[in-house]
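User: Structure tokens for this complex, please. No commentary.
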Amino acid sequence: GAGVSQSPSNKVTEKGKDVELRCDPISGHTALYWYRQSLGQGLEFLIYFQGNSAPDKSGLPSDRFSAERTGGSVSTLTIQRTQQEDSAVYLCASSAGTGLQYEQFFGPGTRLTVL
Amino acid sequence: DQQVKQNSPSLSVQEGRISILNCDYTNSMFDYFLWYKKYPAEGPTFLISISSIKDKNEDGRFTVFLNKSAKHLSLHIVPSQPGDSAVYFCAARDQTGANNLFFGTGTRLTVIP
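Assistant:
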């Protein structure tokens, strides 16, 4: 079956522009996560969606970052007024539920470069 | 503030020998630990995990050891194979109920044929 997909795979933008990154989770997965990996850093949690509950936004680094999940499926991460420090690989993951028994499946990521 | 640390950015091992990847953590609230493997241009994939109530978990060639008093875990791969060459991430989950994972910076393993 299809795994988690993300688009675009690469995005180059100019400082100050807005970008949208898309994640298509595995069908039927109720939980969706966004992480990012900056150069030389580990994966950093950004935001988590579970079903119809309010998302956990505790990892978003600034109010320039936002995410939504429409219809409990596709998610879009939006970064407004991009800065050079936003350059990173943005990874999306989904799982069939919450709890330790539910593995997080990761997409291939979107490499964002802010010039 | 890196709560999960992998201090070795890279490791090279001869095929057939043992690979040992190390991970340290600082948060005593972590109660579940995972190792992920990542190939270039792909997302990380789950490899093996261990609960804090155990000190060892084995799955085929892969064994994870947990030393809670030292806040240290390690992944042993034996025998190492060229296909094991990848970046390995250590991750931990907080027992307070948050569902996000805290990741280390990764160790790039190269298995030399």
